[in-house]
Specification:
This is CopC domain-containing protein. This protein is 33% helix and 24% strand. By secondary structure, the protein is of the alpha+beta class. The protein folds into 2 domains: 5-39 and 170-196; 47-159, Immunoglobulin-like. The strands form 2 sheets. The chain has a 5-stranded mixed beta sheet. A 4-stranded antiparallel beta sheet has the order 1-3-7-6, with no helix packed on it.
Length: 199
């Protein structure tokens, strides 16, 4: 027996709306999962700690530099460079890598002054990271001559803040915006389709 047309339409519209709601919820859930960093899958390597620390003032010159990162390092592509206030490179040993930590020995005794540690590393996922940070040696027992020599050529840029690690930025925001727009368009189309079926 044929059902009345009104009954058929009454059953069809709620079903279409239900499907539309389920699809929109699924799209929004996927959007949230993509936009919210949920662990190491999104996190590129970055500097966790350093010795000497960023902006530290030391009472005695360090004999080594140790940088520890969030992820394991590739020893082949790990570089650490130490420069003084006049941007002169200070001799150091080769980086020794152990997991996520890299250490270099400082060959010379550092006179009082401001120094910059610059690093470029590649984590095991192949992502390169680079940055720099300053520290200061202020040994009260150092001679005035040593302090004067270390201060020559000093400039405000020598004590600049560390450069941020390069990681996901604008590309993530653009991708998230595109997904949000897609969710809005899908919702609009499905809603129009369901309303067209009304008597």
């Amino acid at each position: 027996m044929n059902r009345p047309i009104g009954e058929s339409l009454t059953r069809t519209v709620p079903l279409s709306r239900s499907r539309a709601v389920r699809l929109v919820v699924a799209v929004l859930a996927a959007l949230v999962a993509l936009l919210v960093p949920a662990g190491p899958a999104w996190a590129h390597n970055s500097l966790r700690s350093a010795s000497p620390a960023k902006d530290a003032t030391l009472p005695s010159a360090p004999t080594e530099l140790t940088l520890e990162f969030m992820q394991r390092l590739d020893p082949t592509f790990t570089t650490i460079v130490l420069t003084d206030a006049s941007k002169r490179k200070i001799p150091t040993g080769d980086p020794v890598v152990a997991g996520a930590r890299s250490t270099v020995k400082v060959s010379d005794t550092l006179p009082n002054g401001t120094y910059t540690v610059a690093y470029r590393v590649v984590s095991t996922d192949g992502h390169p990271v680079q940055g720099s940070y300053p520290f200061t040696v202020a040994d009260p027992s150092a001679t005035a001559a040593q302090t004067s020599t270390a201060a020559q050529g000093a400039s405000p840029s020598a004590a600049a803040a560390a450069e941020p690690d390069r990681g996901p930025g604008a590309g993530v925001l653009v991708g998230g915006g595109a997904l949000a727009a897609l969710a809005v368009v899908a919702t609009s189309l499905l809603w129009r389709r369901s309303t067209r079926r009304r008597p």
